[in-house]
Amino acid sequence: MTKKRVSELIKKYNIRLARQNGQEGIRVFGKPSRQEIAELKNLKPEIMAELKRQRDEQIARERAEAEAAERKREEERNSILSGEKKIEVRFHDGEYLTGYQVFGEAAELLKGLGLAKDVRGWGTQVPNELVKALGESFTYQQAVGFAQPAQQKAEAEKAARIEERKAKFQEARETGEKVLLSKVTAGCDGSVNECSLDIIYTWANPDGTVTEERIHTH
């Protein structure tokens, strides 16, 4: 009977666990009668125990659901990586953006290949070129093959930039003069009045350090 009454009171007054002045207690919503106030005080230990049981049960349920969702994602990911499951894209004609969308683990895998991007408020978009080449249903291995030339080009360009930077530092060491690494424009840093645009020079120094020079335009 006590257990049933505890459940009734919790439901009736939406009772929650609460902490005040470092002490754990309960919070009651509504206006219990004098008799019920006395009953609540008397049953407080049982009410707290039930609330904790419900809390622990909820935590365990949420953890189990999260683990199940993670297993499902892992299974989907593995089936896509193995080629067992194909990647499916869907054409979406939106109010502000029209294009092909991809979902779930397929979206994450394509983003990893540089073949998809998140568009805020719209979803994950894949380029039309990919769909033209592979269709609206293709394997992960086909996507890898499509992405490979662009990845190789990007890697080659990155390696070339690194070598070019090394060469400029070498030149600075050999000549004893600073060598220009880059020149970019940017908004004025506000240190000069009536200036809206700055030119920023980045230099490689003979001692191997890098310095930045900001020129204000008027």
Description:
The protein has 218 residues and is α+β, with helices and mostly antiparallel strands. It has five helices and eleven strands; from the N terminus they run H-E-E-H-E-E-E-H-E-E-H-E-H-E-E-E. The chain is extended and about 90 Å long.
Short description:
The chain is α+β, with helices and mostly antiparallel strands. The protein contains 5 helices and 11 strands; from the N terminus they run αββαβββαββαβαβββ. It is extended, with a radius of gyration of 32 Å.
Question: Which terms summarize this structure?
Answer:
51% helix, single chain, three-stranded antiparallel beta sheet, 218 residues, alpha+beta, four-stranded antiparallel beta sheet, 11 strands, extended
Order of strands in the sheet with most strands: 4-5-7-6
Give the termini separation: 85 Å
Estimated structural class: alpha+beta
Uncertain runs: none
- Overall average residue pLDDT: 91
Task: Summarize the topology.
Elements: H1 2-12, E1 16-20, E2 23-27, H2 34-82, E3 87-88, E4 90-93, E5 98-101, H3 104-112, E6 117-119, E7 123-126, H4 128-134, E8 137-138, H5 140-175, E9 179-187, E10 197-204, E11 210-216
Antiparallel strand pairs: 1-2, 3-8, 4-5, 5-7, 6-7, 9-10, 10-11
Helix pairs in contact: 1-2, 2-3
